[in-house]
Structure formats: C-alpha cells, structure tokens
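Collaborator request, handled under Task 6.
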Amino acid sequence: MLELKHDLRLAKTRDEKARMNFVSGLRAHVLNDMASGMRAVWDGEVEPRFRRKRRRGAKTGPEVHNAIKSNEYFKFYSSLRVTAQDLVWQSVFPPLDRERDQLKAEALALRKNKNIGSLTLDPKLEVPRYVSAIDVHLMAGNYDGEYDTDDVAAGALYDNGFAVFSFGLMGQNLDDIGQSIAGFIRLKFPNLKPKKILDLGCTIGHNTGSWKDQFPEAEVHGIDVAAPCLRYAHARAQAQGREIHFHQMNAEQLDFPDASFDVVFSSMFLHEVPKKGIEKIIAETYRVLKPGGLMLHMELPPNGQLSPYEAFYLDWDSAYNNEPFYKPFRDLDPAAVCARAGFKPKNFLQFVIPSVG
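Structure tokens returned to the collaborator:
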C-alpha cells in the first residue's frame, strides 16, 4: 500500500497497515489476474456460444454484458471486485474515526498559521442531486458528506482510500495524472505561459497542485461542490507549501468572468456528471477560457472507439460501482459536445499521455 507523503496523512497501527496492504493486493489481483481470466472465459466459452446462437459476433458492450453476466466466473469476479471496493473504505474508517477531531484541528491551524492560497465556501450552494444522492465508488457519504462544523473527514477518507484503491499506481502524492498531463503540456508547448489555471471537480486538489508545480508563476484555482473535500484540499495544499485558491462552486455555472483562464483542466470528473450537466460544463469552459486558451479533460476512451469487450469491461463500474453516468458519458461523442459548446472542430485533439510513474 502507498504511504502518503504529507502532514495530514492518517497514522495507522501495524494491523491497520496490514489490512490496507491486503486490500490493495486483493484489488490488484482482481483487476489484473482475474480480469485476464475473465477475458479468457469470454474468448474461449461465452463468445463462441454467442456466435453459434446469433450467427455473428457481439456488436456492443451491452451485448457482451448480457451474454456473460450469467457466467459463474463473471459473477465471482464481480462479487470479489465489489467486495474489494467496499473494503477500501472499510480499511480507512478505524484510523479516520480515531483521528477525525485531530485532523480538523490541524486543518484549522494550517489555515490560520500558513495563510497560503485561499478557501472560499458557499453555504448557499445547492449540491446537485447526482452528488448528494449517490455514494459514488461505494464511498460512504460521498464527497459532500458532512457531519460536523469544519468537517474534513470526507476529504481524508478519499485521500487515504484512494491510496489503498490505486495500489501505488498514482504516485506518493496521488498526482500521477496531474503531473503527467501538466508536465507534458509544459514540454510540448514551451511558449505557453498561463497566468490563470482552473481545475474542475478538483476533489482534494491532488492533481490541482501539479499545475502549480509545473507553472509556478500561474494563479491556480480548483473548484468542487463538496465543502469537506475543499477544506481538506486547502489544508493539504498548505501542508505541501502550494499556493492554490479553492472555491465551492458548481462547474455547470461558474462564478468567474468571461475569458478569465488560460487553461481549464479536469481529471476523471466528467463521467460523474449526467449528460445535460456535461453539456453545460463544456459551454461554461468555453465562456471562461481566454481566446486561444486550452481545455483539457482526462478520461478513459469513448465506447465508440473500443471493441465491444473493452467497452463492456470499462462500463462495469456503471453497473456495479455506483457510477450511473459513466457509460452514458462514454457513449457520447466528445468532439460533437465540444462543437456544440462553441469550440472549433478543427481544434479538437485526443491523445494519450505517458505516465510519469
């Protein structure tokens, strides 16, 4: 299991570390070894049976899902993967419950003494139902669960849970995505000197800080609807000496002036939003970008670009991991969504960035 490298990390007993290491290992086994076994079951048993019955191969991810869901291996795989997902959060609860008050005190002390960056919360903001009504990723309370004044528990749960969940793939600061993308952009476009950068759906700011690392002269902002995650994000950034400005704000209706940002970024955010919300977010991004500005969204590839089996495999989360908007998002044509928001089709690019890790 990855051990976080900042002052807000939870202190864990040896038993708690052992439990987290077990859960990380179980997830790695399911997502690597068992996933390979399930593909072999599809290729060797289920797909040939589908061809004999239909006289053709599967054409879509849902067809693959319907054909394989009664298979015993698939049921065992899915049951174990759901169990491992739940165990991620269960493994964090004991140290989090023990240190909840101390974490809140540390976050408040950092805000008072460090005074780096800023935190702006909006108590009148209505958290969208697609956030408040769903424990996405099976995370109890979701991002916005708040049980005390100045609560930061949801942020700590996500930070420490994500460290278990990712079994080391996201780096010691869980910022592999941010560092990979921001670093690539800095090297690819050496003349790009952004003055203001915005991270949409920043959660705990783990990828927001990467933009400050790569572009230290820029003013970096992160927005999210979840107050406890933002409190934690601000304290986390302060503990790491990063000057970042966090705002409680809905990406569908940004409270920023027109043409105010050079770069707008998100990572694994859009797939947690309904289709209507995605259209609004892209339109708002177009509005707040300066002429010639850069919009970047890191997501997994659209279903239209994948084989039926690959589409089924990636859409597993939509059916079993409390991510109901994941498949509808990946069914969209991202170029068309951007064009409807006002972006010129010729300026749309899709590419893969290598991981720095």
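The cover message to the collaborator said: "The CA atoms of residues 150 and 202 lie 19 Å apart. The longest strand covers residues 289-298. Please let us know whether this matches your experimental observations."
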